[in-house]
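Quick one, probably user error.
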């Protein structure tokens, strides 16, 4: 019999490990396909951004509208200086955004560094091919994950917070526990905590927004479903929301990986590969 994060509970023998079956096969396979797709989509997306590293709101860009997010370079004597501007705030980001070393080691004026783009050198056409191919793999994989989670009860049982968990007191307690790096042990560790559920549901919504705004940028898709352009207020707004969602997903991944490291990377990653998870024992004290 298989179960996910709500495991069958037979009390472990004293001294033995409490092992539960934590993740179903569909969750595990779609998770890793998603991780590969997201990495390739992000890197090829940054290659596409390099072609015009400025983001606008509304219908039009470039033709006179001032961008509200922009990556650019300026000269200070012989030196190239990189800048990132968000609204009225401009910060120097030489070495990362605006100016960085190319794959040959030379300093150059380019929005995103070569190590972060696919391909690593400037090639918009190849970047778009990678992006559009993996976008469809990502969509199909996402549909399988959401469909399977609805059918096998994963969404309802493991991801949607229970009524008690959304009480402010419970959420504040969870935030406090995370701030003290007091991670769940024993029975509590057998289920996602409310912050985990919120983060996983949140990132799923971000993925959906990313797909919808991506489709909004496609003239071919606009011809079939024109309503999306109205929904996002124009192609430039859709492009900006697409970029912000990608940025927020990167923020999620940084925290996600930090939590995996803190919770015990071998046990955590093994559970996402084999499904089996060793429940951390309760503290004796
Ligand atoms: C190499 C990178 C990654 C590693 C090592 C990793 C690791 C893990 C692990 C160990 C879990 C299970 C956590 C637990 O059982 O408490 C998990 C769950 C999850 N991860 Fe990742 N992850 C990675 C990348 C990503 C990416 C790129 C995304 C999405 C953008 C993502 C989204 C999720 C979600 C939504 C879940 C919950 C899945 C479910 O139960 O339905 N992960 N990840």
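Nope, works fine. Designed sequence:
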């Amino acid at each position: 019999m298989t179960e996910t994060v709500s495991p069958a509970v037979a009390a472990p023998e004293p001294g033995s490990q409490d092992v539960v079956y934590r993740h179903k096969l569909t969750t595990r396979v779609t998770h890793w396909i998603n991780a590969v797709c997201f990495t390739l989509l992000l890197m090829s997306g940054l290659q596409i951004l390099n072609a015009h590293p400025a983001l606008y709101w509304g219908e039009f860009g470039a033709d006179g509208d001032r961008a509200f997010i922009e990556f650019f370079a300026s000269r200070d004597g012989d030196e190239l200086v990189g800048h990132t501007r968000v609204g009225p705030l401009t910060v120097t980001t030489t070495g990362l955004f605006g100016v960085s070393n190319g794959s040959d080691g030379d300093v150059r004026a380019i929005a995103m560094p070569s190590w972060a783009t696919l391909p690593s050198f400037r090639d918009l056409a190849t970047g778009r091919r990678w992006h559009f191919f993996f976008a469809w793999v990502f969509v199909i994989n996402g549909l399988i994950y959401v469909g399977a989670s609805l059918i096998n009860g994963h969404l309802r049982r493991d991801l949607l917070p229970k009524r008690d968990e959304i009480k402010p007191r419970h959420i504040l307690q969870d935030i406090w526990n995370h701030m003290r790096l007091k991670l769940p042990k024993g029975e509590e560790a057998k289920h996602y905590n409310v912050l985990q559920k919120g983060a996983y549901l949140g990132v799923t919504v971000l993925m959906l927004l990313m797909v919808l705004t991506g489709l909004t940028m496609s003239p071919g898709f606009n011809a079939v479903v024109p309503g999306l352009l109205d929904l996002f207020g124009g192609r430039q707004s859709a492009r900006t929301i697409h970029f912000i969602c990608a940025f927020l997903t990167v923020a999620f991944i940084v925290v996600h990986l930090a939590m995996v490291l803190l919770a015990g990377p071998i046990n955590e990653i093994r559970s996402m590969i084999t499904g089996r998870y060793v429940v951390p024992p309760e503290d004796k004290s």
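Confidence is low (pLDDT under 50) at residues 1-9.
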